[in-house]
Amino acid sequence: MNTPDTAVRTETVGSTLVITINRPKARNAVDAEVAGGIAAAIDELEANPALRVGVLTGAEGTFSAGMDLKAAARGESPAVAGKGFAGLTEAETSKPLIAAVEGYAMGGGFELALACDLVVAAEDARFALPEVKRGLIAGGGGVIRLPRRVPHHLAMELLLTGRTITAARARELGVVNRLTAGGGALSAALELAAEIGENAPLALAAVKRVVRHARDDAEPEAFSAQRREIQQLLESADFAEGARAFAEKRAPEWTGR
């Protein structure tokens, strides 16, 4: 149940689950409660067939400052077993996730954005992986994911310097899908989520699985996995409905079967 002091709030908007990190006084830094809350929200998204897309954001103009160092010093873990930092960075999700970034996405906050499938950011947002300045590395997926998203040398520059970049630069690098005016990231993310949510849920999940195969497997194995996915989709009720809807010039009514 959401209350004003709930560390992670959830709200359903159409077929989208909005997940909000709600520790603005701590710049939405991730402690054990936040990690557990995000993990629970992702479980809710995955379990509810009426939900098609998740949007992750932060309360009151900040996405997330990353790991709560004070909580870590008290012995709290910002990770969830099997799901990684913040209950998300190592989770394998079947439904699309969009990060709606306002303010700062620093360290683990940037890694949360990288764990999402799409990123919408306000023009005044800032991104950084500054762990090397503290004697660490970006261990919540930053060192692994950033070089897969941007050219090697550009990723290494950010990882080795810990430099903060603007949302515009993140867009140039291909990390950010859309830029908005300040305060507009969530609205733009919801528009994108609604567009995605109009599509067949089985096909959306298949896209994510095939993309993972393309990332992790050699091409022959990836194509083999893709063939299996396509065959299952061809046998689904949703594919039959999509074909009927196209012929009848109407919007399809997806059942996820």
Automatic annotation (TrEMBL):
Regions that span the bilayer: none
Name recorded for this polypeptide: Crotonase/enoyl-CoA hydratase family protein
Family named by the database record: Belongs to the enoyl-CoA hydratase/isomerase family.
Keyword entries, A-Z: Lipid metabolism, Lyase
Taxonomic source organism: Saccharopolyspora rosea
Superkingdom of origin: Bacteria
